[in-house]
Amino acid sequence: MQDCIFCKIAQGQIPSNKVYEDEAVLAFHDISPQAEKHVLVIPKEHYTDLDAAERGMDAGALAHLFQTAARVARGLGLHQSGYRLASNCGPHACQTVPHLHLHILGGSQLSGRMG
Ligand code: AMP
Ligand code: ZN
Q: Which of 42, 44, 56, 54 minimizes the C-alpha distance to 100?
């Protein structure tokens, strides 16, 4: 989608610090990390958020996105001490980039508060 920063990252038009890439998904370090390790996992295809993806995205592709997040987290060694997987959806969740993304947060003790 035009003017979507994550579409541009997915297409290589804007650089990113990549962790993993295949034909459908991309994982890269968050530019403004909110934890010791903060990685984003996105589908290359544009969906505004999880709600839009649930309605329009192939279920297997959505499963692949989550599977990739778990694999990336394991690859970073986060599975041992634990990590948080989050996806902000819409204004109440303070979503700032309207392209579906999963946040992987870990590497040190996180807050027990979720909201
Ligand atoms: P959200 O607030 O859930 O929409 O998360 C958007 C995330 O994207 C934030 O954590 C930003 O720091 C991150 N972000 C924005 N632009 C970039 C970029 N060019 N490269 C990497 N991460 C980015
Ligand atoms: Zn997009």
A: 42
Q: Which amino acid is at 65?
A: L
Which strand ranges, in their side-by-side order, compose the sheet holding 25-29? 18-21, 25-29, 37-43, 102-106, 83-86
* Joined tokens for residue 102: 């999963």
* Ligand 1 lined by 7 (C-beta under 6 Å): no
79 in catalytic set? no
**pLDDT tens for each residue of 11-57:** 999 999 999 999 999 999 999 999 999 999 999 999 999 999 999 99
Q: Which atom of ligand 1 is closest in space to residue 87's alpha carbon?
A: 3
**87 pocket-lining for ligand 1 (C-beta < 6 Å):** no
**Which ligand has the shortest distance to the CA of 87?**
1
How big, in percent rounded to 5, are the helix, strand and coil portions of the chain? 30, 20, 45
Alpha carbon distance 31, 39 (integer Å): 9
Structural tokens at position 79: 């599975």
CA distance 71 to 78: 10
